[in-house]
């Protein structure tokens, strides 16, 4: 299985997702600043992977605090939490993970020494990493019943092992269906501008021997109209209480097409991706990234100088286009009211 991240006890190793599939380069984060930079520059990306990486960023930040005074320690830790939280705004797993680690530290700080607080934080981050893989496997088992032998499944972006600690959410469901002996063919949208589909989804599915065909983002309608897509399955960065779902830019267009062609459209995500504070998707903050990601492909400028460019990294798919949401606790069907699920 792909090792998206690996905690060594004193550093966090990440597979650099900016250079895949041409290079398999491992980078080593030794400080919370290194972690914040890796998240911001998308060396690590995908909501669950960002969350666990951020948790280890907190551990690295804690290791670098040299005080024996618990309240001074907590003050500094809160600052580090703010820095890590400022890296990317949309994936709620980032905030969920940092807050979970902060809560563990706060609890421990009431009775314990700084050394014990640091140990408790590391245990929590290790547990999150372990839980992530288990959640993905559970999601896979629940979700695979929705896929039939012989299905062609369209996915957008990368919601695979690389976007999680391992196994994947949307791709985890596909992996589980294949493990159950079903023949599944995957169409992967290339996913401009960062090309997560062409570079990452194609790389990890090909490594697993799962049939994958890369298409440009504007080819999905053609395929659907010609009866080539049976199901769509994508991941999520943040799900509001009514089921509205933020995911990689272009997901909304795919959902509209699927709705028009009456093709089931599934979202697979752990409950840590649900934001119970947001009643609907209009409140989800959408990250606007550097236009350079649009202007250059592999360092080569592809448009005239001085044209206007926008680069929103996510869009929101309204809940009425989502046939089901697959979580590690089970499959949710409309009408969605996700207040009751344990997150
Ligand atoms: O900008 P990215 O690559 O972090 O966006 C990733 C996605 O949109 C994924 O589909 C989502 O995080 C789910 S990953 C299991």
TrEMBL record:
GO terms for molecular function: S-methyl-5-thioribose-1-phosphate isomerase activity. Substrate binds at residues 45-47, 88, 196, 247-248. Pathway: Amino-acid biosynthesis; L-methionine biosynthesis via salvage pathway; L-methionine from S-methyl-5-thio-alpha-D-ribose 1-phosphate: step 1/6. It catalyses: 5-(methylsulfanyl)-alpha-D-ribose 1-phosphate = 5-(methylsulfanyl)-D-ribulose 1-phosphate. NCBIfam families: eIF-2B_rel (TIGR00524), PRK05720.1 (NF004326), salvage_mtnA (TIGR00512). Catalyzes the interconversion of methylthioribose-1-phosphate (MTR-1-P) into methylthioribulose-1-phosphate (MTRu-1-P). PANTHER family: METHYLTHIORIBOSE-1-PHOSPHATE ISOMERASE. This is Methylthioribose-1-phosphate isomerase. The lineage of its organism: Bacteria, Bacillati, Bacillota, Clostridia, Thermoanaerobacterales.
């Amino acid at each position: 299985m792909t090792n998206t991240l690996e905690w060594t006890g004193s550093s966090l190793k990440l597979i650099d997702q900016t250079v895949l599939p041409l290079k398999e380069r491992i980078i080593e984060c030794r400080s919370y600043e290194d972690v914040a930079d890796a998240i911001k520059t998308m060396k690590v990306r995908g909501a669950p992977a960002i969350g666990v990486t951020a948790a280890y960023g907190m551990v690295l930040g804690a290791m670098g605090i040299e005080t024996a005074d618990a309240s001074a320690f907590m003050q500094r830790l809160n600052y580090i939490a703010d820095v890590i939280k400022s890296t990317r705004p949309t994936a709620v797993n980032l905030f969920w993970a940092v807050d979970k680690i902060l809560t563990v530290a706060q609890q421990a700080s009431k009775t314990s020494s700084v050394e014990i607080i640091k140990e408790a934080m590391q245990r929590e981050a290790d547990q999150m990493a372990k839980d992530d893989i288990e959640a993905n496997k559970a999601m896979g088992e629940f979700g695979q019943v929705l896929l039939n032998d012989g299905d062609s499944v369209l996915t957008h972006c990368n919601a695979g092992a690389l976007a999680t600690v391992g196994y994947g959410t949307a791709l985890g469901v596909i992996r589980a269906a294949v493990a159950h002996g079903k023949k599944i063919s995957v169409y992967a949208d290339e996913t401009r501008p960062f090309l997560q589909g062409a570079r990452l989804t194609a790389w990890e599915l090909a490594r697993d021997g799962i049939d994958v065909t890369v298409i440009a983002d504007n080819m999905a309608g053609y395929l659907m109209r010609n009866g080539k897509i049976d199901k769509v399955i994508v991941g999520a960065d943040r799900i509001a209480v009514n089921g509205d779902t933020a995911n990689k830019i272009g997901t909304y267009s795919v959902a509209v097409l699927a709705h028009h062609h009456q093709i089931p459209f599934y979202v697979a995500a752990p409950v840590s991706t649900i934001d119970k504070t947001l009643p609907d998707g209009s409140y989800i903050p959408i990250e606007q990234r550097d236009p350079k990601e649009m202007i250059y492909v592999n360092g080569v400028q592809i448009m005239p100088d001085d044209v206007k460019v926008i680069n929103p990294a996510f869009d929101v798919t309204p809940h009425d286009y989502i046939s089901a949401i697959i979580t590690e606790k089970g499959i949710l069907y409309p009408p969605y009211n996700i207040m009751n699920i344990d997150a």
